[in-house]
Structures are given as structure tokens and as C-alpha cells.
Amino acid sequence: MLADALEHLVRGIVDNPDDVEVTPRSLRRGELLELRVNPADLGRVIGRSGRTARALRTVVGAISGHPVRIDVIDVDRR
């Protein structure tokens, strides 16, 4: 459910919505959502000084009722 909500939010702000992929993972300390987008959309998802990424974390955390870790994965760096 959280992965679907994050995917929906991110698809609305990127230029390449078909490239958005969210992978949920369970950790000992909570839930992790790995977000992959087209490299051209990376700046849109992060935003100035990380504002957009922080807002996405806040909204998803409010939906879940607890903090959720969201990692934006840069597919160009290996």
C-alpha cells in the first residue's frame, strides 16, 4: 500500500512516469522503500536542497503512521 502511494505521488511529478519503480523491503528498524526513476528525473524527485524528497517522506510517513525510510536510487552510479 505504501509503495503504491509513493509510486502514485512520484509519477505525478516526473516527466517519465513509466520508469518509476518502487521496491518495498522490510528492515529490523522498520520499512524501506527503494525508489528508482529515470536519471533525467532524479533532480525533480530530490528537489532543491532535498525539499521534494523530504515532502515525499513526510506524506508517506503520515499515511503509514510511522517514519518510513525512502531511498532514491541513482541507477547511473554503481
Automatic annotation (TrEMBL):
<dbReference type="Pfam" id="PF13083">
    <property type="entry name" value="KH_KhpA-B"/>
</dbReference>
<dbReference type="InterPro" id="IPR009019">
    <property type="entry name" value="KH_sf_prok-type"/>
</dbReference>
<comment type="function">
    <text>A probable RNA-binding protein.</text>
</comment>
<protein>
    <recommendedName>
        <fullName>RNA-binding protein KhpA</fullName>
    </recommendedName>
</protein>
<comment type="similarity">
    <text>Belongs to the KhpA RNA-binding protein family.</text>
</comment>
<keyword id="KW-0694">RNA-binding</keyword>
<dbReference type="GO" id="GO:0005737">
    <property type="term" value="C:cytoplasm"/>
</dbReference>
<dbReference type="InterPro" id="IPR020627">
    <property type="entry name" value="KhpA"/>
</dbReference>
<keyword id="KW-0963">Cytoplasm</keyword>
<dbReference type="InterPro" id="IPR015946">
    <property type="entry name" value="KH_dom-like_a/b"/>
</dbReference>
<dbReference type="GO" id="GO:0003723">
    <property type="term" value="F:RNA binding"/>
</dbReference>
